[in-house]
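Practice problem: predict the structure.
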Amino acid sequence: MVVWAFVNSQPTADPYLPGHGDPSYTVEHYDLDLEYALVGNRLAGRATLTIRALADGIDTLTLDLHHLKVVSVRGVRTTRYTHRGGRLVLKLAEPLYADATAEIVVTYRGVPKVVRDKAGEAGWEELEDGAIVAAQPGGAPSWFPCNDRPDAKASYRVTISAPSDYYVVANGVRTERIRRSSQTVWSYEQREPMAPYLATVQIGQYAEHEISGCSVPLTGVVAPALRTRFDDAFADQPRMIAEFERLFGPYPFANYRAVVTTDELEIPLEAQGLSIFGSNLLHRDWEAQRLIAHELAHQWFGNAVTLRQLRDIWLHEGFACYSEWLWSEASGNDSADQRARVHWGRLSELKQDIVLGDPGVHDLFDDRVYKRGALTLHAIRLTSGDSAFFELARTWVQRHRYDNATTGDFKVLVREVCGPDAADLLDPWVYAQALPELPPT
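Answer:
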């Protein structure tokens, strides 16, 4: 069923991100051909979108494209198009009906800028020497025209031309690398469905190297001067993947990359099939190791299984935060139960005015959401036992792999796998403000 919502007469797909997304259609494939000039931070692109209608009689399609200038629109027949306020609106010459497919080809250029929303700013940004894309939650339109909804998952092909002395990484498997004098053309394919905010490009004076001892192709992408520090900080990455595969099921994508920028970053960044870290996290302290584990866990929780709307962010961050505690336990440090009780004590001393299952846009990434989400999972584990809890985690990923899910879906599965006592825990943990007591160990 298509749910319609409008902001200023424009469709929107999520109340947390007004002015993003069109619920009337989805995108099945993006083909992005890009050229990037580091001098001036200039981007030129041609985006080919294969779309599928979700409703009957669609006479208008809205795409999201921020700041960049539209040069032309081809493919689907239009009577006219307008581009303002970050929305590219196409008036169709003939209506589309449910399940009909069409192709939209948008040529565009300009200087990409981050998208500023109530949830924060995100998108394409310059580094001191290169570029980075961190698009959660609404930054995808900063670099390509899209239907900016997490439930509009698609496959991607990204080809980008950049100066030859720079290394380019995008999602998925690299299929081609062709040097043409001063420019090199890089091609990547992300075959598993991906939400637009998880699409990324990373550009820097990097080198990529294989990391051995892992069940999946694993690489590090880092400036050569940082290689020794990288090898030390990320030494446990193969063991982390093995542990999470044991707990959550097979790694869900074709490969995994850890990209480290020469810049320092306030927080690490999540993308599908890769994670991005600042050089300030190249150490063995718990603060760095927990974040390495956190971003890896997002490949299962957030990327393979993605929320349908942002209010359910705890399904991503709660699992990723709990995975930190699980890694602590597996690596011989504090147990998950010890860490849970420490963080329960800290949360109990803070203001309790957030509803985990609908925290509001301004508290979307509040640390209380992360920690309370993890505590919710620990409460289920304590109530149902390890066997049922980890069956729950594996079944959650398997059942909703490459799809979208909601808190309601999770509650159904908890009842099915862990029983009614565990399911009854969810309402006070997820929908009440007061912090419940943890069950006894």
